[in-house]
Amino acid sequence: MYYGGIEAGGTKFVCAISDENGKIIDRVQIPTTIPEETMGQVFDFFQQFELKAIGIGTFGPIEINKKSPSYGNITETPKTPWKNYPFVKAIEERFQVPVGFNTDVNAAALGEAALGAAKGLDSCLYITVGTGIGAGAVVNGQLLQGLSHPEMGHVIVRRHADDTYEGKCPYHKDCLEGLAAGPAIEARWGENGLALAERTEVWEMQAYYIAQALVQYIVILSPKKIILGGGVMKQKQLFPLIHNYVKTLLNDYVPYPELSEKIDEYIVSPGLGDNAGITGSLLLGKLALEEKAANGLTARG
Amino acid sequence: MYYGGIEAGGTKFVCAISDENGKIIDRVQIPTTIPEETMGQVFDFFQQFELKAIGIGTFGPIEINKKSPSYGNITETPKTPWKNYPFVKAIEERFQVPVGFNTDVNAAALGEAALGAAKGLDSCLYITVGTGIGAGAVVNGQLLQGLSHPEMGHVIVRRHADDTYEGKCPYHKDCLEGLAAGPAIEARWGENGLALAERTEVWEMQAYYIAQALVQYIVILSPKKIILGGGVMKQKQLFPLIHNYVKTLLNDYVPYPELSEKIDEYIVSPGLGDNAGITGSLLLGKLALEEKAANGLTARG
């Protein structure tokens, strides 16, 4: 008996099977097209295995409030064919197992807290900087969730003095995502990030924006570890620049070594590399099974 | 048998006694001077009662990490006589009961979630805007805590176009607290808030800053209710201005009625009025007792 996991992204789905300890046994990659097509391949993959539970970490926004009639759906999304897609219902009906459901970034935070850079900690923040910017968090050992899931990519930042680019966010123009996600970098500088690797002014500005966002996350959430993933963060020269800006902005206000001399151990790359999301998705399945067992006990008790 | 609570503020301590349900039976106010003097009066008050537990909600910064050797202490503070004061140890040694310990704003958030404006919700944010700006939060039914307690008053905001005041925060100059706490209002406009009640430009600017901070809190924490307390928020004309700015800034990005047409039920005054902090402090005592009982069971099990 295995766990199944789905990391649902805008360009591809990663599906995987793990054992009890989260070790990945088999995996497949499926292009994200329309639900009928993509989900058909997802079903084909999983039906090869006997599964105890399936976890989904997906692009959003999604409805994660279990009391809502649209729980388990993708809600608003520019990826039109997926709008209002009942993700949890589709998987439950097909496989008749408990289904865990959360954002891709919350899943990645869970994966990193369980088996990655934040292993052993009851608190961490995972941020992806790529086509968009999103973040998930573990707080007191649980996934962060309230009215909705966080939308941390849309924090307000101060503009860099040399930045005349208006910003790309369709809702807020120059929020963090509007100024610092991959498409904004390309629109501002006229080339994509890979071609700009040697231009120091690009990464100075990028670090300035990301560091401001991290300061907001730190004073609001006080995570025990911050993990920066996503395509843009493959530019490793960003890390020391971000470390310096965060230290300067905080100015020793919170006197913890993690926020000063040990900051390079505090703001880090994913311990699981590109597997943070799928690992967390598999864990979401395991949590769904445990929750069902606990509810069963309560009902019997 | 009763619960004791201490709301420790920079100018006064409120001490109270409650029954099992959080109903306040007796209370006293003690000026904050030096620990020997203030705590002497605190001891005198509590020794009149038979107590099961005592909760402390205090000004900070404080050490709330139970694994730290300085757990239970006030740490850095401009109130020099209280620097490194071992608050929990002093109360434990004197009364030999379980002691709960957290920030005044986390206590207020707990009080409002249990018995106030966020009653019945497992998530809320409490912000005080007064001599300083601080906030506490309940997330998934638990007090928000990570590396340290939050320091949300120090979020970064964009400057208002008409604001030439440099900011008063000794660490960050023009963070939220530096631009929008009571002393900043007085320094910018030359009079204290009460005397400025009729000047609309004062409250427009104030709402602009507070609304930006709320947007940061919303996209990062997604609280189910936001409660604004403290002296500055007695200027009730601020509420509609803040509601409008928050709506404008979010621009329907998170499509919840709480963040658009129902925003006046979402961002509200404390349900417990000035009693949020002391009510939460009493509950911290109750939680400390329950935690001790649970640990005892585990140890026996």
Automatic annotation (TrEMBL), chains A, B:
<keyword id="KW-0067">ATP-binding</keyword>
<keyword id="KW-0418">Kinase</keyword>
<keyword id="KW-0119">Carbohydrate metabolism</keyword>
<dbReference type="InterPro" id="IPR051804">
    <property type="entry name" value="Carb_Metab_Reg_Kinase/Isom"/>
</dbReference>
<dbReference type="InterPro" id="IPR043129">
    <property type="entry name" value="ATPase_NBD"/>
</dbReference>
<dbReference type="GO" id="GO:0005524">
    <property type="term" value="F:ATP binding"/>
</dbReference>
<keyword id="KW-0547">Nucleotide-binding</keyword>
<dbReference type="InterPro" id="IPR049874">
    <property type="entry name" value="ROK_cs"/>
</dbReference>
<dbReference type="GO" id="GO:0008865">
    <property type="term" value="F:fructokinase activity"/>
</dbReference>
<comment type="similarity">
    <text>Belongs to the ROK (NagC/XylR) family.</text>
</comment>
<keyword id="KW-0479">Metal-binding</keyword>
<keyword id="KW-0808">Transferase</keyword>
<keyword id="KW-0862">Zinc</keyword>
<dbReference type="Pfam" id="PF00480">
    <property type="entry name" value="ROK"/>
</dbReference>
<protein>
    <recommendedName>
        <fullName>fructokinase</fullName>
        <ecNumber>2.7.1.4</ecNumber>
    </recommendedName>
</protein>
<dbReference type="GO" id="GO:0046872">
    <property type="term" value="F:metal ion binding"/>
</dbReference>
<keyword id="KW-0460">Magnesium</keyword>
<dbReference type="InterPro" id="IPR000600">
    <property type="entry name" value="ROK"/>
</dbReference>
